[in-house]
């Protein structure tokens, strides 16, 4: 039977290897320090509140191009679940734009058309359209998720019903709360995705005030920061609309 041969290593060889290891360790830390210093000398991307350093924004934009161009399509559907799997206690997260003195009776969805005209719609106008529902795993950038059950009108059905074909041919959809304190920008392919809905029900009941009553966006192919609560204004553009969390340094696309 063969036995393992013992190899004697001299103290000089051990010392040499130790020195080489420390050399590369210091080289690594030096590269990290230099990279960190270089990054902090780069200009910000110009977003509100400075945003993020331009190299980081370039990385986020590159990721968006790769993800949206390769993995996204109208056939890319979020996994759905039976209604019985939906949580009864939906986690509340984010109250920006949800004023406590909100007057639901005077609420209107203001759709700003391509020619500058504004279409004002009530909740009843929207509820006349075909109802659809979805039960999916709602995901937040904070790391939590919940299976939740929502119902409303497909955005694509809404576009068709109100003659917004010219508007939907543009690259982006912009949304904001009535007070315009919270706002998001959505790429049009994601807005027109078959699972995207203008939502007015949660767990078979009207939306609670804290969840965006009377109307919010549910867009399963995006993280929760894009699911704007209490839509007050809607508009269309070929340039990126302003986006609250993008201005704080987050990814604009925010896709799943």
Explain this structure.
There is one protein chain. The protein has 256 residues and is α+β, with helices and mostly antiparallel strands. It has a domain at 54-87 and 105-247: Alpha-Beta Complex (Sulfite Oxidase, Chain A, domain 2). The protein is 27% helix and 20% strand. The chain has seven helices and ten strands. A five-stranded mixed beta sheet has the order 2-1-10-5-6. Strands 3, 4, 7, 8 and 9 form a five-stranded antiparallel beta sheet that branches. Strand 5 (172-176) and strand 6 (183-187) form a beta hairpin. The longest helix has 29 residues, at 11-39. The chain is elongated. The N and C termini lie far apart (57 Å).
Q: What are the defining features of this structure?
A:
256 residues, alpha+beta, Sulfite Oxidase, Chain A, domain 2, five-stranded mixed sheet, five-stranded antiparallel sheet, 7 helices, 10 strands, elongated
Mean pLDDT over the full residue set: 89
Q: Helix segment count?
A: 7
Strand segment count: 10
Main-sheet strand order equals 2-1-10-5-6
User: Which shape, going by the Cα principal axes?
Assistant: elongated
In what range is the share of β-strand residues?
A: 15-25%
CATH fold-level label of the domain at 54-87 and 105-247:
Sulfite Oxidase, Chain A, domain 2
Q: Element order, helices and strands?
A: HHEEHEEHHEEHEEEEH
SS class: alpha+beta
Largest sheet: 5 strands, mixed
In the CATH scheme, the class of the domain at 54-87 and 105-247 would be Alpha Beta
**Helical coverage, percent range:** 25-40%
Low-confidence stretches: none
CATH H level of the domain at 54-87 and 105-247: which superfamily? Oxidoreductase, molybdopterin-binding domain
CATH architectural name of the domain at 54-87 and 105-247: Alpha-Beta Complex
How far apart, in Å, are the first and last alpha carbons? Answer: 57 Å
């Amino acid at each position: 039977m063969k036995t393992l041969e013992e190899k004697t290593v001299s103290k000089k060889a051990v010392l040499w290897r130790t020195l080489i290891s420390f050399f590369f360790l210091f080289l690594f830390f030096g590269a990290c320090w230099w990279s960190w210093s270089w990054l902090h000398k780069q200009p910000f991307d110009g977003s509100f509140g400075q945003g993020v350093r331009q190299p980081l924004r370039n990385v986020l934009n590159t990721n968006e191009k790769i993800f949206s161009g390769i993995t996204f399509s109208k056939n890319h559907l979020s996994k759905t679940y039976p209604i019985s799997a939906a949580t009864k206690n939906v986690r509340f997260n984010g109250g920006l734009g949800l004023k406590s003195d909100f007057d639901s009776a005077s609420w209107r969805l203001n759709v700003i058309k391509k020619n500058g005209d504004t279409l004002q719609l009530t909740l009843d106008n929207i509820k006349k359209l075909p109802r659809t529902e979805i039960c999916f795993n709602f995901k937040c950038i904070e790391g939590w998720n919940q299976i939740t059950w929502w119902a409303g009108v497909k955005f694509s059905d809404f576009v068709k019903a109100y003659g917004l074909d010219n508007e939907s041919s543009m690259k982006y959809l912009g949304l904001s709360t009535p007070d315009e304190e919270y706002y998001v920008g959505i790429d049009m392919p994601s807005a027109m995705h078959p699972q995207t809905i203008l939502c007015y029900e949660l767990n078979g009941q009207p939306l609670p005030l804290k969840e965006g009553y009377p109307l919010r966006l549910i867009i399963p192919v995006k993280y929760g920061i894009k699911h704007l609560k209490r839509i007050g204004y809607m508009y269309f553009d070929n340039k990126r609309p302003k986006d609250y969390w993008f201005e704080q340094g987050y990814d604009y696309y925010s896709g799943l």
